[in-house]
Amino acid sequence: MADPQPQDSISHPSTVVWNPFRWPAGVWALVIGVLIMSLPFGIRAIKLAGIPAIPQPYDEAEFVAWDVPAEDDAFTEYRQVFDLVQRRPAKSDSNTWQEPECVQAVLEQGWSAADESLVRWMESHREALDIWRRGTEKPRGRNLSPDLLRADTSIRVTDQRNIVRLALLEQSRCLETAKLDEAHQWARAVQRAGGHMSHRGTFVQGLMAVALHQMSTQGLQRWAERPEVTADQLKTALISTRSDYSLYESRGNILKCEYRMLENTLADGRWLEMFAPLTGRSDVSTVVKIQQFGYWVMAEPDLTVRLMRQVLAIQLQEIDKPIATRRKQVGTGAAVLFDPDPATPLTAGRLDPVKLDRAINSSMLYRHVVPSIKQTDEALLRQEARQLTLELLLAAQAHRRDHAEFPSDASQLVPQYLDELPLDPFDPGGRRIRYRRMDPQQAVVWSVGEDRNDGNGDVVSANNARPGDVGFLLK
C-alpha cells in the first residue's frame, strides 16, 4: 500500500480560487475583461459622487405656469407679424424688409433726412406695423414656456428688431409733424415690446430686450427734448415708463430660463447634435457617437446638470441685487459665484463656491455649453442703469418746463418729480445716479457703467466705441 501524499501537496479548489497566481489563463482573461468593462462605470460613479444632486433651487411648477390668456398675449400679434414677414418675396423691391439707404440717417438726424423711397417702403409695411402696435398694447407677452425651450428652439428675435426700427421711423415722422402724443406712444410701444420679449426668456431674448429698451430710451429722449412737450406730458411719461419697465424680466428669472433650456437640451438623446457648434463638432458621424460615449464615461451630461443647479442656487441669492450689495465674487470666473452668507447655512447637498468652482473647471462639458453669465449680467445691469437715468432725465426735463431751466442739483427734483434719487446699480459704493448741470439749458445724467469708474458723464460714443458711462445728455 502506497504511502499517502503530504497534505500540502494536494491542490484544493478553494486554494486555487483565492490564489490568483495559480489561476489559469482563461480565468485571467475573464477577470481582466470584467475589469475593463466595469472601468467606465467606476469612473462615472466616482465623478457623480463628488457633486450631489439637488432639486431645482426654485419652484419650477409655478415658474413655468401659463398665466397669459391668448387675448392678453402680445405674441398672438407678434407671430402674425413674423409670419407676414416670412411670406414677403425675397427680391429687393418695396415689399421686402431690405431698408432704404436713408433709414439710419432718419433715426439719427430726424425726419428731414427721409426721401420718397422711405415713405413708400414704410407704407408697404403698414399692415405689419399696425398688427405689431396692437400687440404692444397688451398687458403681457409670452413667447414660449420655459419647459419647451431647447438649444435648437427658434426664437425669431431678428424680426422684432426689424419692426421696431419701423416703429421708430413712425415716431420720427410724428415728431416732424408735431404729433407729440402719438410720437410718445410709438416710443412706449418699443419699450413694451422689449418687456414682452424678455418675459420667461433665455439669454438671447434678454439681450434682445436690452437692445429694444435702448432703442426706446433714445426715442423717449428725442421726444422729451422737443420744447412743445409740456411738464404734465413729461410727468405722465415718467409714470408710464416705470409701468412699462415692470414688464421686463428680472436677471434671476432670465437665468432660470437659460438653465431650464440647457437642462431640456441635455435631457434629449440628441443633445450632442444640438450642441455640436459649441463642442467643436460640425457633424453627427460615428466620431461624434464615440465622443458622446466619452462624455458619458466622464458622467456627462448628468454632471453638468448637477453643476448648473448648484451654480444657480448661489446666483439666485445675489444676481438681482445692485453691485454694491452683492456678496464678494469668488472663483476663477468660469461661473459667477459669490461668497455664501454666513447667516444662511448651506442646505443639504449644497457645495461651497470654492469647491464648486474647482468642479466646474474639471468638467469636460460645462464650460462648453453654459454661456458667459458675466456678459449677460453686465448687459442687464446696463439696461437697468439706462432706465434709471431715463427717469431722472424725464424729471429734469419736467423741471425745466416749470422753471425755464434744468435744476442746479438733482436733489431739487425731490419730492415734486421723484420720490427719491435712484441708486446706481453699477456703483460699487452704492452711490446714486449722477447729475451735473453745465448751464441752465444743458445737463448730463449718468451711471458709472460696467467699468465701475466714474467718467464724469462720459455718455457720448466716439468712433462707435461704447462710452464709459451710461446715461444721457440733456438739452
Describe this structure in words.
With 475 residues, the protein is mainly alpha-helical. The chain has 3 domains: 56-268, no CATH class; 274-371, no CATH class; 372-475. It has 18 helices and 5 strands. A 3-stranded antiparallel sheet has the order 3-4-5, covered by helices on one side. Strands 1-2 form a two-stranded antiparallel ribbon. The longest helix is centred in the last third of the chain and has 31 residues, at 373-403.
Q: How would you describe this structure in keywords?
A:
single chain; 475 residues; mainly alpha; 3 domains; three-stranded antiparallel sheet; two-stranded antiparallel sheet; 5 strands; 51% helix
Q: Could you write a compact summary of the structure shown?
A:
With 475 residues, the chain is mainly α.
**Total helical elements:** 18
Strand order of the largest sheet: 3-4-5
General form:
elongated
Question: Biggest sheet, in brief?
Answer: 3 strands, antiparallel
The amount of helix comes to 40-55%
Low confidence ranges? 90-95
Beginning-to-end CA distance, first to last residue: 126 Å
Estimated share of beta-strand residues: under 5%
User: For the residues shown, what is the average pLDDT?
Assistant: 88
How many beta-strand elements?
5
Radius of gyration: 30 Å
Tell me the domain tally.
3
N-to-C order of helices and strands: HHHHHHHHHHHHHHHEEHHHEEE
The structural class is: mainly alpha
